[in-house]
Amino acid sequence: MTFLNHTSVSHRVFCLLGIPGLEDQHIWISIPFIISYVIALLGNGLLICIIIIKSSLHEPMYLFLCMLAGADLMLSTCIVLQALAIFWFHAGEISLDQCITQVFFYSSTFISESGILLMMAFDRYIAICYPLRYTTIFTGALIGKVGMIIFLRSYGTIFPIIFLLKRLTFCQNNIIPHTFCEHIGLAKYACNDIRVNIWYGLFVIISTVVLDVLLIFVSYVLILRAVFRIPSLDARHKALNTCGSHVCVIVLFYGPGIFTTLTQRFGHHIAPHIHVLLANVCILAPPMLNPIIYGIKTKQIRDHVVHVLFTKQK
């Protein structure tokens, strides 16, 4: 790989290293990657098929879950396949346009998932706090519009990043110590002033993910307040149980991301390969575990999965 230090020349090809410092262990590291990806494909694919086929599951909560499973598949696919190519074939070379494309789809899908989790929290809020109005509020038309707004928001906020990256001149190091391309991770190799990229990236995070987290928190505060006003212990337990799987998925989605952000901000003494591994855990864990969590904690889905997988066809 040729290194160019002339500000008039911009790199058009970059090299993803994979896990820096652990290159000789890439084959072994690929094992949990491929296992988690296969589980994510099978679990989310089965979840989508069951929800689409079974008319009894054509309810708001399950339709949002179907959207979440689709986003999980897209998120894991656009990251894991690149990582496996690096681990197995040392195919780390990636063009600037491919790198920007990966940034776009990875970031927009992540924001889409955050929006879906927010709507699932709102769904539980209406179901518990206003049960008599639930079916009149969450109509099929509303769910379709909400789904469209979620994806338009994610693509609309990330789309300007394409142009923010395309305007840069990459004349510094073209070796990226990671398994995939990130917005600021790529921008920092430019010779230009990247303050616009940094501030816009911060605006996107605050206006989408941070706002979603705050609204989810408010929703569950209101849900808990309503639940603990229910006099019947059985009804209270049932109401909390309906939120259990969603809370687990929320923690699984945001928890590793928050932890990774904190380690990047304050853990300067932590080895680079730990940062990269944590970033990949944020991508690998939710798609793999989400269908398992919902399959275990949601009786309707669990019953249909058991019927599909274990009932002998006559």
UniProtKB/TrEMBL annotation:
Transmembrane helix among keywords? yes
Q: Which PROSITE patterns match?
A: G_PROTEIN_RECEP_F1_1, G_PROTEIN_RECEP_F1_2
One Pfam family recorded for the sequence: 7tm_4
Q: What is its main location?
A: membrane
Give the record's keywords alphabetically.
Answer: Cell membrane, G-protein coupled receptor, Membrane, Olfaction, Receptor, Sensory transduction, Transducer, Transmembrane, Transmembrane helix
The UniProt transmembrane annotation reads 27-53, 62-91, 103-122, 134-155, 198-227, 239-262, 274-294
Q: Does the keyword Cytoplasm apply?
A: no
Any one GO molecular-function label of the UniProt entry: olfactory receptor activity
- So which domain of life are we looking at? Eukaryota
How does the record classify its membrane topology? Answer: Multi-pass membrane protein
**Cellular component GO terms, alphabetical:** plasma membrane
What sequence ranges are listed for the domain G-protein coupled receptors family 1 profile?
A: 43-294
InterPro entries named in the record:
GPCR_Rhodpsn, GPCR_Rhodpsn_7TM, Olfact_rcpt, OR51/52/56-like
Name its cellular compartments. Cell membrane; Membrane
Q: What does this protein do?
A: Putative odorant or sperm cell receptor. Odorant receptor.
User: What family does the database annotate?
Assistant: Belongs to the G-protein coupled receptor 1 family.
Q: Per its record, how is this protein called by name?
A: Olfactory receptor
Which source organism does the UniProt entry give?
A: Gulo gulo
Question: Source organism lineage?
Answer: Eukaryota, Metazoa, Chordata, Craniata, Vertebrata
